[in-house]
Amino acid sequence: MATASIKHSCSSKSLSLDSGVMTITSEDSYKSDFDDNSLTPLSPSSTYTVSAIPNIEHSYIDALILCQWDNILGPRLDHVWYVTGRPQPHTNILRFVTGQVLSGEICRDVHTSQVDIKFVDIPDKGVIIPAFIFSAQGSRGISLQSLALIIPNSELTIYLHQADLIHSWFSRIVAKLRVLCAKKDFGTSGLADLSSWLLSCLEMLSSLQTVGLPPTIQLSYTAFHPSNSIEQDFLRSVIASHLMTFSRSVVMGLNDERVNILVYTLGLFCWDSERFCSRAALKGKKWPYYQDLCVQGCTKNPDGSYNLSVRDLLCSQYPTTIIDVERREVMQSSSVLDHRRLSYETLLEELRELYEGEEGYGNSPSRFYQPVNSPESIIKDLIEDIHKLPPDYGVREAYVRHFMHSLQRRAFCLIKYVEGEVTSGARISVKRIKQDLGLQLEGDFRITLAVADKMKPGIYHYLLGEKKYDTEYLPNPADVL
């Protein structure tokens, strides 16, 4: 992974005493209405360092900041990452944002390991600020800190579509950042590590901008078009496993066109919001596996190999379907019931290795992969029905949408059934649920249950899991360190 270049400098601008409110115009949202010559020097304690994050083709994030609460000075800006090619926010906006994200946090217990997500909309400054508030060990003891993104408010829509994805990535970054802050060399090697993680996150978001799936997928791009024939048993296994793993899949292959046929096909079986977090393969781009993308296409090396990070697979929110186009293999990164435990253990191991300074952390043995062996009928019937329909006039696309709507209604029925059983005090019987809802086959039940869990998180583990695997019973990995 390339490391973001670090170019340290110090800020030499400050707000004049009578500058007043900054005026934002559509032509230049970061220009202020005062003369720079009137600025007075800042004290040495108000300086901050700057880094550049280069080689990001598409970004709607202008800058990222790291700030902390100083018990003497109040909100203090420590470091700024500017994204190369994007407008650079003015110094006054950076300081204003620092005060906003840390305001109201003075009474927070700094000894808690909880990471809070704060969203600040500043219309008169023309920016929105997603911020992650956490406590970390610094050179002056434990302090309240924040890692925040500065985004133009014109990009609010796309941010909201990808907010959960960004939260997932930054939660992991913050967990590792808290470990770095406890080490004495954070200002040197620690800052470089943090910059490389932020670079990876922005590269992931850039890939979504480059070849993200469209809101509406044309049939000609999918395996349901007559010109794109794929073996039905393989296609059936791919779609069934994709739905069992909460619509999380990675498709690998040598030919990007063959990979994208499956990527776009699986895109039909994603919710609208999930397509905004899905990406096709691009010829000439060797993207790695990115955690928590819904569907992603990846091109193999010429020798047929692909370096799939097991650690990133297990740190994802849900298990992932791994599809090899050439080998016609469909595997799952882990079982749904084991994934939370494995995810916790993997993140804990990552933080431990980072704290102890061990080299080469990033990959683990792929002993957790398992084949798909749950028989089902609903995908088999769906594929047979689709091939009976004409490929013209959007008939097949409409039928797939109807299938997804009916699957959601069936999942909603399952949720209401379980709620009714709990309310009445009856003993939950999975066997009776399967029989009453017509889900006798294990694959049909797990597909429906996965959709239900996305609508009502926790119901999957409530019916099939054990309490010791639930997130609420696992300690915070940051607490252990």
UniProtKB/TrEMBL annotation:
This is Uncharacterized protein. The gene is 106063562. GO terms for biological process: autophagy; endocytosis. One of its GO terms (cellular component) is endosome. One of its GO terms (molecular function) is guanyl-nucleotide exchange factor activity. InterPro entries: C9orf72 (IPR027819).
